[in-house]
Design brief:
de novo design (two linked rop proteins); elongated; 0% strand; 117 residues; mainly alpha
């Protein structure tokens, strides 16, 4: 998968995450998680784009570290919603799987980048 495909995939992930967050019921916990998901999921796409513009391999690896953290955080919130019965596995399962796949992709990319330094 090339950089342009990953840019599209991370942007799609952000859109899907935001839509899921907006569909959550109102309540103190859901409202908190909604805001956390807005922040973490949109950060995935924004920081991956920034990584693609990095001026060095070290800067690229550093930005990828942020992408890994934010993608994993979004996965955490989806898992938490499912565990709290705010969201069903059917509602969140596909997005959770995408978060886990993206996390694995970016961990592998970061490792490759660091080995080339």
């Amino acid at each position: 998968m090339n950089a342009e495909q990953l840019k599209k995939r991370t942007k799609d992930f952000s859109h899907r995450s935001v839509k899921l967050a907006m569909s959550l019921p109102n309540g103190p916990l859901a409202n908190h998680i909604r805001n956390q998901m807005f922040r973490s999921s949109t950060s995935v796409a924004a920081n991956y784009r920034a990584a693609c513009l990095a001026h060095s391999k070290a800067a690229f690896a550093s930005k990828l570290s942020i992408v890994v953290e934010e993608t994993d955080e979004t996965a955490f919130w989806i898992e938490f919603l499912i565990e709290e019965d705010i969201l069903s596995v059917k509602q969140g399962g596909n997005l959770l799987e995408e978060a886990q796949e993206l996390t694995a992709i970016f961990i592998a990319s970061r490792k490759t980048s660091q080995q080339k330094q």
